[in-house]
Design a protein that fits this description.
heterodimer, A: Pyruvate-ferredoxin Oxidoreductase, domain 3, Rossmann fold, 7-stranded mixed sheet, globular, B: alpha/beta, 8-stranded mixed sheet, 3-stranded antiparallel sheet, 12 helices, 19% strand
Chain lengths: 628, 351
Amino acid sequence: MADHGDHGVNDFAFKVATVNGTGSASANGLLLQALFRMGIPVTGKNVFPSNIQGLPTWYEIRVNKDGYTARSPDFQLVVAMNPQSYARDIEDVASGGWILYDSTRKLDDEFRRDDVSFIGVPLADMCVENFEGSRTRILMKNITYVGALVALLDIDMDIVKGMLQQKFSNKQHLMDANFQAIEMGHAYVQEHYDCPLPIRLEGMNATADHVMINGNTAAALGCVYAGATVGAWYPITPSTSLMDGFSQYCARLRVDPQSGKNNYCVIQAEDELAAAGMVIGASWMGARAFTPTSGPGISLMSEFIGLAYYAEIPGVFFNVQRTGPSTGMPTRTQQGDLMMCTYASHGDTKHIALFPADPKECFEFAVAAFDLAERFQTPTFVVSDLDIGMNDWMIPRLEWDDSYVPDRGKVLSAEELEAAESFYRYLDVDGDHVAYRTLPGVHPKGAYFTRGSGHDKYGRYTEGSTEYMEVVDRLLAKVESAGDHVPAPEVHQGSQPTEWGVISLGGCHWAVLEARDDLAEQGIAMDYLRVRGFPFNETVERFLEEHDRVVVIEQNRDEQLRKLITIETNCPKDKLLSITYYGGQPLSKGHVLDGLAEWIPELAGSEPGEDTSGGDVEPDPLIADAAS
Amino acid sequence: MSYIKKPAARHPKMPTNAIGLTPRDYEGSMSTLCAGCGHDSVTAALIQAFFELAVEPHRLVKISGIGCSAKTPTYFVSEAHGFNSVHGRMPSVAAGANAANRDLLYVGISGDGDSLSIGLGQFCHAIRRNVNLLYVLENNGVYGLTKGQFSASADIGSLSKGGVANRQGPIDPVNLALSLGATFVARSFSGDKDQLVPILMAGMRHQGFAFIDVISPCVTFNDHRGSTKSYAHTRAHMHEVIETDFVPLRAEIRTKYDEGEVKAVMLHDGSTVRLRKTDPDYDPSNRRAVLDYLGATAARGEVATGLLYIEGTNEDMHSFENTVERPLVDVPYDVLCPGSAALDAIQEEWR
């Protein structure tokens, strides 16, 4: 047997290459869930085309007994079901690995490699023999490769069958077909190959307190729990499933039992401009309102975001980032909108932004975003990305504190207005930079004119320099004061500061953590701070001061986080080094280690340069954009 | 500037309405528009309409985009909540506000630039969405604030102040509203308050999207000879197709029309619109026939006015959305939050 590195029991990665639109997603979901139910830490990454049917698609699964969940482009096994992408898929298997393929058609010699093992299973033939109808045959081919993997990887067959039973409890004929396919694939490899492979699974107990979920669904649920009632949106990959999730959970949890009517309103707008307008209209009226979108949507919404900032209207904007600029790569991930979100719109603006690292934080930060938006009366961003939003993540169970009370900010009630001598919308009565707000229809004394044109602190139209500056200066102070209220940075450090520090954000976290542990094993300690919110606060400033060199790790070309830090803190620019990866795949530890090796001589040469090309998908000029 | 307050003096014999307010209580700040602007007459008609409807000022929401028309919400009902939003986007702000609080009364003020150029998309979709809103389009065929460019409603051959003829075909908002399924479509003239006021009142009471295109001449940039949106041209070519009377709920019927020639349409709240046709063949409840009729009058160079099309309906955006009757802003948080037990149950499905 060839060398398969350190990989073995409960520690390897594999990917399934199929054609999109053939039903492989449910087979892959079944696999992922089965491993999770075996109690083994597992992550799934769906690498899909911007297309509905017929183009190559991949599903990557990493199992790791130590709980590392970052993407690993180091595949020990590839299930090659798509002849269109054979060349690339077979090339992607690590030396010593395995390739499971459909041997109905003989594999061309050009694909053969000497350093990997080929496992041929005549999947198409078997399905033609055993099932009727072309659609069923295609679907069952997927389940048959799952059966083969059950044998090869030693997946618990009872768990897989239990899941099929659960799924098809009302459809006996489908359950029978699925059982037959699973058994068929299993029996074939048992008979023809040594099973299991050295990379295999053993049941653990590491997932009992966890769930498997994607960030968009978790964020949607966060909106439900935050008490959001109005959602407006325009469909855009990769954010669409957020509003789908909100609608589905609301249909379950938010329908008035007496009348059968909805305690929520979801409006599919004509474009992102209108979606933003609706959020602002609803928030102005006093509802908790939000919109999920991606970078191109924020570009369009920027006009309204400036209005909301200046007229001080709350609103929650989810940006599930994808690869830009322009239409970019709609089904690939990036952190390319950091600058745009924090300073969206013309003129002097600055916005609160939260950076979740996983679906758990998507849920928590969704709730926090509504509190911050209302407390500071300003648009607030939850800046997620495709990897967090759409992929399946293993996360600790979400928790909810039933004593939570929404922070609605400084809103005057009818009674308070009745008793008040006067009300001026933009007057800083308490000296905390936040003025009192009224809601339409509550009391005649609360009426004022909301406008995006120049206004003074009394809410009156102005073209006067002093009056104008007084208001915008307060706005700056107001948003900056939010730095102490956004989720605090997560700091990983020992008792003494290390010479070098690392700053990162969002979904980079998991690769950074893994790389940092690797470094520690080599005796290199490195403090690490994960930014979770903007504006930055004192903790970020202190971390920068305490370290001689700080490496900023992020997923965009232009070092946007590094630039934000240079703009918003006192840190000298030359103290900040940068590691960027922006190829569209989630970050993996190799990106971090290779980047650090540039400056840390101990690292260079100690590790064989891991493939950090990201296992990028072969560019296909025929890919038609359907997901923008 | 528009925050200049008018003196609070009031004539002792000034009439009061059902809630004890006088017409003065429906006024706003002093207008800063040009003297003689058609928009100021529309504002005056709105003030009268709100007074006669006895609208509670703070229950009224007035929303606009950008432009001369967009300034006017400051000139009426100062105790109403106003929102001067961004150019062409008033419909979306109104839709969001209405989604959150369906109990308030909504009036949107727009212009031909705001609605037919930059905001054409939002205008169309607000109609399709059937937002419960009176949408007033103050139409003068010209961009006033930027000093006289043609707007998308300018007729072919209409001359600019500098004598240049417009060559692009106009977008007719009435035609558009009818084609997109609006259930209340009217056209009027800022110089005809008798016609305008009852239509505005009926529009406020209509459930769903109520549209009124008001020819409202721009005295500074488009009131010259050769303009088809001038006072003189509009007066000469205006053709009142249908006379409108609005009868509030439980009010005594005091109509000037003979019963025989009147068509009565009951509105959502029980009030009635009474329409008298000046053309015996005109049927304001037949959308296709109205479109044909308007096509013919337009071809003759006439401006057909009146409450041109109406459907008595109980439908609006909330009917599609199946939203609760109670405004969403009034639903208590404990009804909205499913709680920790529900979260645990949901997460069982994620394992």
